[in-house]
Records
---
Amino acid sequence: MILKITFHENQLSSLSNIFLPSVIKELAKFGSSMRFNRILRHTLGENYLTIADLKLSSIYDLIFEYIQKKYPNEYIYKNVLANKILLGTHSLNTSFMLTEVCIKNSKADCVIVNGTFTAYEIKSKYDNLDRLLKQLDDYKKVFDKIYVITDENKADKLTYLKDMGIGLLKLNVNGSISTVFKSKSNKDNIDLSCLFDILRRDEYLFIIKKLTNEKLDVPNSEMYNYAKDIFVTLDKGMAYKEAVKIVKKRGDSKELKEFIENTPKSLKARAIETKLTHKEKKNFLSLLELKVKDIVKGDM
């Protein structure tokens, strides 16, 4: 089925909100979402009847496909990266994807872990490039490979990134990704202090114990600074290698893998990044099989 409705850009912005983590969480937790219902009512209006008998999973795929062509925002890019690179080039058995990874004053949109850290900075047609160089400078302190992924128009303005060793990808209208040029390795510029800050407490303590055979025994209030002082003295290559291995384990959960695999293509990125309980994951997968009219009844 093709969504044969014409929307204004502000309506597309509203329609894209059905992909927000808060909406997914609400659907998974309660089996319905007032916000989801309002979005459909306000953007589809009487056209709601044309999609009422479709499954929720089909609605998400249908709207994603439409927005991908007409309003390619940040989520579109994230989800294409999840499908084409994490689940296409790689797999959940060998790789995992993190989103919104904080590095100093920047936040990497996506990071794929599969033997190394590869960061992806999204610059859609709706983003400006004012902070890009500062963001890339921060990413160089943690990630081996760094890519900017953008649209065709912006790609022409970013060819200078090649001389910086940054890779450039282009998201095409049909949802495919083209490589303009590849990223060079950035391992020599890794800053262990910044690498430490993307790790969870149990992760950096494990690495320190493995590489120094030292079990830290200090008060909790002092642990962060004490551990960081030790971590920055580790061999950079070994510390980086162990960091990649242990961060990748965040995706080792069989339950999470099954949840990601069973969600529709339009929701892969949200399945990865939305924090849901075991019960909520199960509820959401069941909800995806219901017709929209059975989910929003009484509210439309």
---
Amino acid sequence: MRSNRKWWNIGLLLVLAGVMLLVRYKGILYTGVHPVMTYVESRRISDGTEDYKQLEDGRFVIHYKAGDREAANRVKAIAAAWGSKVLDYFGYQPSDPIDIIIFSREDDLKGVLRIPHGQSATGAYAGGMINLLSPDSLLGMNQDPDSVINVFVHELAHLAMDGICRGNYPLWFTEGSALYMEYALLDYEWGSGLPEEPDYTMEDLTYRFHALDDQKAYRQSFLLVKGLVEKYGKDSYMEFLHRLGSGQDFKRALGDVFGIQSVADIRNRRSVASGKGLVPCMDIRHSG
């Protein structure tokens, strides 16, 4: 009986030690496992689009169905015009060509990427790939076909961040950064006449993002990233990304690089830097 209790106590101590290591080094562990997870997801997406044709253009490989050659050529031109601008901003140059998959139907995109049917999607970054609806499909959804430029810039920003940080960030930060890239390159600002700035806490954004009001959560995410870049500059922002890529905890890196710990800290510094609050925008678009 004593022997059994002894081994039970040893097992409990080992479990506790493992939990403590996981909490302390979760960023390092996650960045180590993330490339494997990305590869597995990429293989699953490739299997779901194995009958697609390919159009290669140096840095990008565009995958499309046989009837979507015109859409593939259009996306090829968009990638040539905007791809280097996004990648150069992040200083990220992947060694392999970047895969872009064009879906002619929203249901196809959501089916391959396992997006819930009740959720609208015009594009998504997944498995190290950029996934886009064709411009013709956007037109059929009563959206401007040219909005595929925004979606491409948004998703390529996700890809670059993922390559640098290896997934070591909360969802709100990568979404805010992708929206900021649209703002910086395309002069598009997320928001549609919201009467006041959202007031979610860092914990709300980090742990309850999907439960929050979609427009307000994305709006605040964008404003927070915009505030960081405008107050501290691009160099500090990039240092922060590379610290995340090395496995540093998000909140610790936030404090080390910017000296802040909360949404209120970012908001206060942003208002001082810019001297203004919301800038209303006339439309809302979500690409993921």
---
Amino acid sequence: MLAERSNGLNMHSTLRSIINHIIKPSLFHSSVYSKATQGAMHMYSSATFISKHFMINSMDVYETIKNRRSVRKYLDSPIPFDKIARIIDAGHNAPCAGNLQAWRFIVVKTKEKIAEIAKNAYEQLWMGTAPVIIVICADNTKIKRAYGVRGERLYSIQDCALAAMNMLLAAEEEDLASCFVGAFDERMLKRTLDIPDTARPQAIITLGYPDEKPATPLKTELKDILFFDKWGNREDIKEFFPLEQYVKSGKSVAKKLGEKKNILKDLKKILKKK
């Protein structure tokens, strides 16, 4: 009896790891899985379900990209610091010129400072509703030494943009809303945050729980933005169009992944009650 309870607790802990990390479904035996999750598994009856809904695959990143929106209204709710840390870590793992990692991240949480930054951003006062703001800066000391003017004026901007995109996608994965802000008075922002002359602010990211649901923006057709081999060439690759057919083929999979994400949330809630 005691051993069974011990197994249940161990598997209960394992299930939390599955939800938060990636573990192959083949590691589970259906009977043990059922004991571990106790009442939770009355919704899901077999190990086959685990294979279909808990195996993280390459489509997840596409789902995250498609779901991300620029949100400009946030709830007055604090963000746990572990979420912020993971978002920063995502930015830090972006590719960069020469692996110099010239980016620097300033996390701002005080309401007064956030309000001041909103004024620095040409009076975009909606930013004041965000509980957290991250200012991405480029420290040009090393990158200028390594690559000269091109490193200072191009590579540093590219690197910070790559970091920002990683952070926006990480925020989506953390069930947080975000917005990329590139319009701000650089001198005012540097003064507000005591940024030295050797560094430049490149972007601001607002973070928070959404208090609005922006509509899906209209996108141009892929054929209007794509060339092959050289600018403007579409003549010899007509068999590739319409390219949307290749995207649509993955929609059913994406739908299942969306269902999986909701199921994971349900399981998390159940486990927290245990």
